[in-house]
Amino acid sequence: MTLPPPHTMRAIAITEPGGPEVLKAVEVTVPVPKHGEILIRVAYAGVNRPDALQRAGQYAPPPTASPLPGLEAAGWVAAVGPGVTRWQPGDRVTALLPGGGYAEYAITPEDHALPVPEGIDLREAACLPETCFTVWSNVMLRGGLRAGERFLVHGGSSGIGTTAIQMARALGARVFATAGSAEKCAACEALGAERAINYREEDFVSILKAEGGAHVILDMVGGDYIPRNIKALADEGRLVQIAFLQGAKVELNFAEVMMRRLTLTGSTLRPQSDLAKARYARHLLKHVWPMVERGTLRPVMDSEFALEDAAEAHRRIESSGHIGKIVLKVA
């Protein structure tokens, strides 16, 4: 029998904009699901760079979202709002969240939750939504990557990178990745990258040009990588930008874009509509969840922290020393 949720819960709040030390354990009211929403009893929550940006005051949550950090979680449905038809209390789910994952309970639209794939546990399941939604929507839908094409992902050892390598390889693409150490490059190649490029020692532009150029590049670095990406693209190649760790402004000569018929695009996931995210979820269930269940795509786990140690988890992700995903253990 599924017990009703309590009135209060443990959570991690951002007490003021700042470093990891501003994350504090608090007790808050358990949210109540509205029409079309489900309440999840969180077992594990994923830790992502947007959480750290929100903590620093650089990435405000949508007006209707929880102010608590946390964009993905896995656990059990604790309660359903009016109109919910897909889920019932007790179901195991993993979900993309509008916010609020660093807590014992979190709310999300029912269509943003997915069943936990066969063969993985809740710890691994908590690492799937943010990266899978991001990679599928940007690389496959926006970038149009096809089998046989050359794909370059920067930050190949990150949560996004490790997911992108496996997903692109499973779809038949030739995969290249950049990373900042021999250990990280080895991890990328073990996941299926044909060539991992240590950006501290090698020039990814010359390496990709020698291969004929990349058909699709997924970049989260920005800054001076943008004009270099343009040079590394094949004719009619597509550059997909999802973050700007080194800045969003750069001088760019668009003549090359025109002459070589290049496409520059990009997106951020959180501000998109509920309908768009529901469409991505349907794509994942059809195309990506079978990869997970076959074992061709698995979350790469870096480390686990207790919910109360969220500040240490943020220090870990901001150190850039991690390979794969970081999670908070909640239940």
List the helices and strands and how they pair.
Elements lengths: L7 E7 L8 E7 L7 E11 L1 H7 L16 E9 L11 E5 L8 E5 L3 E3 L6 H4 L3 H14 L7 E4 L5 H12 L3 E6 L2 H10 L3 E4 L5 H7 L3 E6 L5 H8 E9 L12 H6 L3 E4 L7 H21 L6 E6 L3 H10 L5 E5 L2
Parallel strand pairs: 8-9, 8-11, 9-10, 11-12, 12-13, 14-15
Antiparallel strand pairs: 1-2, 3-4, 3-6, 3-15, 4-5, 5-7
Helix pairs in contact: 3-4, 3-9, 6-7
Walk me through the structure.
The chain is α/β, with parallel strands linked by helices and 331 residues long. It has two domains: 8-128 and 274-329, Quinone Oxidoreductase, Chain A, domain 1, CATH 3.90.180; 131-266, 3-Layer(aba) Sandwich (Rossmann fold). Helix content is 30%, strand content 27%. It contains ten helices and 15 strands. Strands 3, 4, 5, 6, 7, 14 and 15 form a seven-stranded mixed sheet that branches. Strands 10-9-8-11-12-13 form a six-stranded parallel sheet, with helices on both faces. A two-stranded antiparallel ribbon has the order 1-2. Helix 3 packs across helix 4 (159-170), helix 3 (129-142) packs across helix 9 and helix 6 packs parallel to helix 7 (225-232). The longest helix has 21 residues, at 274-294. The two termini are 18 Å apart. The relative contact order is 0.16. The model has no long low-confidence stretch (mean pLDDT 97). Keywords: NADP, Oxidoreductase. Pfam families: ADH_N, ADH_zinc_N. InterPro entries: ADH-like_C, ADH-like_N, ER, GroES-like_sf, NAD(P)-bd_dom_sf, Quinone_OxRdtase_PIG3. Residues 18-328 form the Enoyl reductase (ER) domain. One of its GO terms (molecular function) is oxidoreductase activity, acting on NAD(P)H.
